[in-house]
Design a protein that fits this description.
Blueprint: H1 5-9, H2 12-15, E1 19-23, E2 33-36, E3 50-54, H3 63-76, E4 80-84, H4 93-103, E5 107-110, H5 116-150, H6 155-166, E6 169-174, E7 179-183, H7 189-193, H8 196-201, E8 209-212, E9 220-225, H9 232-250, H10 257-271, H11 278-287, E10 294-306, H12 311-331, E11 335-343, E12 356-368, H13 373-388, E13 394-401, H14 408-413, H15 415-427, H16 444-451, H17 455-475, H18 479-488, H19 493-500, H20 504-518, H21 525-540
Helix pairs in contact: 3-4, 5-9, 6-9, 12-13, 15-16, 17-21, 18-20
């Protein structure tokens, strides 16, 4: 960080010259360099932020020339002017002081003869040392985050590294203001994350907030929470960390063993179209243990588990899930290919009382031809779910099923549908009693669940509701809940007044306020649809109260 004019003034070599501040405006200006010159036209060779040392020859000229000299320095953006009295002037006079004050130009006089070379050496030595320190810090930041990227460090470790480097609290959130990872410094985690959504919504953008994700696909924000304002160093660390987090999200992790990796690779090749021949597909699958000449069914298992801050423990649980699935299949003599994906969940101030991580298991199940598909599926799914739910930390598991087929390629294409069904089923509030879900078992709320984590959907919900949410935060009101009940009742004001136990005039006043805040007409069908959709998205991302 560069020295300021005040810093230079405080150095022993300047203090030895018995300095007197003639104009103390902007003494906090940074000093990029020190320049010694008595020329009246010195401004022509300056680039800005220099501290000018002079014996005052230009200030011995007539008054108009003195004023022009000061104006030229100010126009050149100098940091300040230091004048040694005695050689050309014994005092600067009121004109110089007044002009400097008008220009906001720091002016200091030295009453004793001072060797300017000693001032330049002291200041330049400090500047060079500071520049070297900045280079060293930049090198350390680069090496640290490169190492984190190479070894695929977890989100929590990346955020913790930022907090350690900056000695300040740091939060990583998604676009719905859900905390993905956080490290508290000089405070507790509970204090840092208390009422986080409201806090985050009211945060101004600036140097302490950095977007995370590719430029056109932002998916989160990295936020510095510190008592002091953000510095250039802090900005550099936040931006480098954001790049590492972006890379982290793009890397596929959590693979177990060569056989599991091979299955995962084959499923990826099938899904992404790198295998285009059915016979090739079945041959590769058979080599990994999948039965030939079968009826194939795409399945997806969505598993919620209590988050473990220890990455090693989390990996062990992921391995345990894989083993449980394999064991469940073995108990009923089923043959399948599977691939497991770890899904880190939100941390801290979310809608759930516990932080949740998850596992997703994509599976291609082979059933004997001639078997009744649903009956066999019920048997297989019951065995797999029983084993998975026994894994320590697992709180919930549901299975989504796509359309069965004789073609392995067609079945692989159906994995996306099975995943969507499982994701929706996991998000539905009623506890599932089914062994598996098909697309016919999900509803509109489930459709929104499929796209709730898309940044564009989160941005839509924020645009629709942010003004009302900020109003509720600032005024301690609950107009958002009133709007939700109004939309749930299809705009029936009589029923809404009864449900809220308020008079109709009071209700009309609330609805009018909502219309003014959101600049909408609640009698307009499209406005109602947009707002209701936004509220459902907010609920599904953990921002609304459970129904």
């Amino acid at each position: 960080m560069l020295l300021t004019v005040a810093d230079v003034l405080a150095t022993p070599v300047v203090q030895a010259g018995q300095p007197e501040v003639i104009c103390g405006a902007h003494l906090d200006r940074p000093v990029r360099w020190v320049h010694v010159s008595d020329l009246a036209e010195v401004a022509d060779v300056l680039v800005g932020a220099e501290l000018i040392l002079t014996t005052g020859q230009a200030l011995a000229a007539p008054e108009p020339a003195r004023v022009a000299y000061l104006r030229s320095l100010a126009a050149a953006g100098v940091a300040g002017l230091v004048v040694e009295l005695g050689s050309y002037v014994s005092e600067l006079g009121p004109v110089v002081a007044a002009t400097a004050a008008d220009l906001g130009l720091p002016v200091i006089v030295l009453h004793r003869v001072t060797r300017f070379v000693e001032i330049t050496e002291a200041v330049h030595r400090a500047i060079v040392a500071d520049q070297y320190a900045e280079l060293e810090f930049a090198r350390t930041v680069h090496e640290t985050f490169t190492e984190l990227s190479v070894r695929r460090a977890a989100l929590a470790e990346i955020v913790r590294t930022v907090a350690t480097m900056l000695d300040a609290s740091v939060v990583l959130e998604d676009l719905a203001h859900r905390v993905l990872a956080a490290t508290a410094r000089h405070t507790t985690s509970s204090a840092l994350l208390e009422n986080w959504e409201a806090t985050s919504r009211l945060l101004p953008g600036g140097e302490g907030v950095v977007d995370v994700g590719p430029q056109m696909q932002r998916w989160g924000r990295l936020i510095l929470r510190a008592d002091h304002g953000p510095t250039p160093r802090a900005r550099m660390v936040l931006e480098r960390a954001a790049q590492t987090l972006t890379l982290h999200r793009m890397i596929d992790k959590d693979r177990f063993g060569l056989h599991r990796r091979a299955q995962t690779g084959l499923i990826a090749d099938l899904v992404e179209g790198r295998v285009g021949d059915e016979r090739d597909a079945q041959a590769r699958a058979a080599a990994l243990g999948l039965h030939r000449h079968a009826r194939y069914v795409p399945l997806s298992i969505e598993i919620d588990a209590v988050a473990d801050p220890d990455p090693v423990a989390a990996q062990r649980r992921s391995a345990a899930v894989v083993e449980a699935v394999t064991h469940g299949l073995g108990l009923v003599g089923a043959s399948a290919l599977s691939a497991t994906e770890h899904r880190p969940g939100p941390r801290g101030a979310g809608a759930r009382s516990l932080a949740i991580d998850g596992e997703r298991v994509a599976m291609i199940l082979a059933l004997a031809r001639g078997a009744v598909v649903d009956e066999r599926l019920a048997t297989v799914c019951a065995a797999v779910l029983t084993e998975v739910r026994r894994v320590d930390g697992v709180r919930r598991a549901v299975i989504g099923v796509g359309a069965d087929s004789d073609s392995l390629l067609d079945t692989a294409s159906g994995l996306a549908d099975a995943t969507e069904v499982a994701t929706v089923a996991a998000s539905m509030r009623a506890a599932p009693t089914r062994m598996f879900f098909r697309s016919a078992d999900i509803r509109l709320r489930g459709l929104l669940s499929l796209i709730r984590d898309d940044p564009r959907v989160q941005s839509f919900a924020e645009t629709e509701l942010s003004a009302l949410l900020r109003h509720d935060i600032r005024h301690g009101s609950d107009l958002t809940a009133t709007l939700r009940r109004f939309l749930d009742l299809a705009g029936n004001k009589t029923e809404l007044a009864k449900a809220l136990a308020i008079s109709r005039p009071t209700l009309y006043d609330r609805l009018a306020r909502i219309e003014r805040i959101l600049a909408v007409d609640l009698d307009d069908g499209e406005s109602r649809t947009s707002l209701h959709t936004a509220l459902l998205v907010r609920e599904l991302t953990g921002g609304g109260d459970p129904r």
